[in-house]
Structure formats: structure tokens, C-alpha cells
Amino acid sequence: MIYKSYLFSLTLRVLGLLFALILLAFGIVNLHTYAIIGGAILTIISMYNLYQFAIKRFLEVDDFLESVKYRDFSRWFVETKGPQDIRQLHKGFNLVNKTIKAIDNERQAQFVYLQKILEMVNIGIIAYNVESGDVLWANDSFLKTLDFPSFKNISFIEKRRPKIYDELFETYHSNTASVTLEMQQETMKVLISDTVFEMEEHSFKLIVLQNIEETLNRNESEAWKKLLSVMTHEIMNSIAPITSLAETLQKNIQETIEQPQTAVLELEDIHAGLSSIKKRSEGLMKFAQTYRSLNKVTHVHKTKIKASLLFSSIDELLKPSLEDKNVILNFDLNDPNLTFEIDAYLIEQVLINLILNAIDATSTVSNPQILVSANISHKGTGQIKVTDNGTGIPEEIMDSIFVPFFSTKKTGSGIGLSLCKQIMLLHGGKIQLQSSEMKGTVVNLLF
User: Start and end of every Histidine kinase domain (predicted)?
Assistant: First the structure.
């Protein structure tokens, strides 16, 4: 619209100038005095008018560009006076100013928003000019962490804390590094990371500083609490069947003492029961020793053991507990000579955990059954499966079932299955779980 109006006005003035020149040329050729005078006057008037027309619009554009140069977007150009094309031009200028002001306001709002966020985070942040040392921005957390007042140039720190200055501003940390800063009366452990960036032909350095002293102390305390929880859970899992088996043996011996004629003491049963108690006690001792020396938690001591011996030991250990709960525990072994190269004590701990979970899962079903089987998978690797016909695991918590300390039991610690997974990983294997609500669960140990 502006272009059409401008072109129309310009065309009229050019045609007027052309007419005046033709009139002047006619007068000169025909020596017509009035035509020469009239043509000369019209030519001067037309040229002046065309000049004024063009220069006025150039001045308007130059005026607008001048305001842009000095970022004066508050100016308002008159839209109700002057030629139509200039009015349209002013409307365009005002629209540009309005748009730029809106963008600038939005940028300022984002800057204030970002600044408030960085002020609230518990991480120290500082940005400064690498050449001059002038501080572009530093949040309160940075000043509070290092116990500094507000400063405008990093030379302030160089004069008062030269060691901190060297570590923060002279040393480049390409990756996040943990360093110890010497304060006035104490030392502080912090994480430092920094990066250099370019902005308007200047180099700036951004430093991020996080005090991890309190976090380390808090995490250490939490780690000890969780470790004690793990130890308690696993020890109780082993003590419960040992206690039950010991009570059964004690009951049999007591009956033999009181009624020697009718109650015959089966020495083989006593021997088998004591052997199971001894083996589980040794496994419990090894488990405790493993946690007592945390640097050994990543090692397993593998030996070759037949699956039949592993199953027999678990059967002897858990049989008394299962009889009280009317749970049927079966073992299925297609190959009696099937052998695993494993840490028998730790895998026994895993199977006890899984069987006890299966017992809980079948507590509300009729005819509860648990099947433990071992065979060679189609990939040629050994596997042990624990299958139950219990209530199953809800689909919405399947992804969280191996997360440490996640539990759906009111009295559970949530470390049983996570520990089973860790033990399998130490064996270079994995644990897989398939479950359907009200149909049961299958846990597969792949070695």
C-alpha cells in the first residue's frame, strides 16, 4: 500500500517535470518567449517539488534509522498528518518500534526471571571478563559459600585470598573437579566446573561452585543407615529359617527324651538339620564379612556346585517354615549332574530371598505352590527359576521392583530384590521377572 501511494505521487511529479521540459524545449526551438519563460518556471517548480518529495521521505527513513542506532524505541511517529504514503510509513515505523519494545520487555522479563532463579539455587555462580577481570554477575550463593562481600573485580580476591584466587580463576577445570579450599579458619570441600564463552568480542569465564561438605556428611550418614537396614534384613532372612529348623530339631529331641519308647530319634534327620544350620550359618557369616569389608563387595568366590546339592540345602533349611504355612515347595531338576560355577553362599541367599517373597505372595491363595527349577537355556547358559502361583505384581510398579528401598510391604525394607540383582550382576548374569496379577510370578536367574 505504501509502495503504490509513493509510486503514484512520484509518477505525477516526474510527468509534471517532463511536461515542463517539453514546454521549455518547444519555446527554445520556436523562439517563443512566453513558452521559454513558462517552461523554465515550471521546470524549476517541478524539480524543486520532486526534490522536496524525495528528500522528505529519505529524511523520515534516516530519522527512524537514527533512533534505531541509538536504540530509542520510545519515539512515536505521527500517523494522522501529512501525505498518505508518509502516514503509512509512520505506521510501519511505529509497528517496528512496538515489536522491538515487546521483544525487549520479554527479554528483560526472562533475564529477571533467570536472575531470580540463579539467586535461589544453592550453587555459587560467577561470570567475569577474562581480560579486565570485571565481574559480569555473581549470585549470593557464591559470595556466601566463600564468605566474600560483593565485589566488582576479581583482583579483590587476588589480594585477600591468593590461594583461592589461583584455584578458582587461574586453574582451568575442563571437567567437574572436587577440590579443597583453605578458608580463614577451616577447609571446605567443593565441586568446581568452569567454561569460557565469547560475547560481543569479549571473552568471559563462567565458574560454578558447589559446597559438598554438608552433602557428603549427610550422604555418609544415610549410607550407614541404609547399610544397617540391609544387614538387618538379610540377617533376619537367614535367622528365621535357622530358628525354625532348630525348634523342630529341639522338639524331636524333647519328644525322644520324654517318650523314648514311642518317639524314635532319627539321627539322619538330626544330622541333616544340623548340616543345614551349619551351612546357612557359614553363609551368613560370609555375608556379614562381605559387608564388613566394603572393598570386597565387588568380588565373588566362585566354585563348582551341583544344582541338586544347592536345592537340597535350601529344602532342608526352609522345610519347617513351609510346613507351618501349608506352602508346597517343589524342586525340579531335569539333569541331576547339572553344575553351576557360582558363589554358593550368595546364590543361596538370593534363592532364600526369592522363596520368602513367593511365600508372602501366596499367603492369600488356596493351594499355594512354589517351584524352583534349574536347566540349560536355549542360549546354552545355566538358569534357575522360582515360580509361584501367588497374587503377582501390579504392572504399574514393575519398573520399580528392583529399585533399592522400594517396597510394597508395610514391614519391608525394599532391599531384598535390589540385593539379588546386585549379586547376579557380580556373577556376570542377570535377573528377569515376569508376573501377572492373580496368576503368579516367575523370577529367572540367568548365569
Answer: 230-447
The string of pLDDT tens digits covering residues 98-145 is 887 788 778 777 777 776 776 667 788 888 998 898 988 888 888 888
Same domain, 78 and 126: no
Cα separations in angstroms, 321 against 41, 52, 246, 326, 425: 124, 109, 11, 9, 29
- How many domains does one find in the chain? 3
Is the Cβ–Cβ distance between 210 and 123 less than 8 Å? yes
Residue 162 inside a domain? The answer is yes
Count of Cβ atoms closer than 10 Å to residue 415 Cβ: 22
Question: What is the residue type of 14?
Answer: V
Q: Which residue's C-alpha cell is 560454578?
A: 208
For 125, phi and psi rounded to 5 degrees?
Answer: -135, 135
Whole-model pTM over 0.90: no
Q: Give the residue from 77, 106, 135 where a domain finishes.
A: 106
302 in Cβ contact with 341 (< 8 Å): yes
Each residue of 242-271: pLDDT tens digit? 788 788 888 888 887 878 777 777 777 787
Dihedrals φ, ψ of 303, to 5°? -140, 160
Domain that holds residue 389: 217-446
Distances (CA, A) of 127 to 109, 196, 197, 207, 399: 20, 9, 10, 6, 42
Query: How far is it, in rounded angstroms, from Cα 171 to Cα 168?
Result: 6
Does residue 115 lie within any of the structural domains?
Answer: no
Same domain, 175 and 32: no
Specify which residues 387 forms β-bridges with.
371, 442
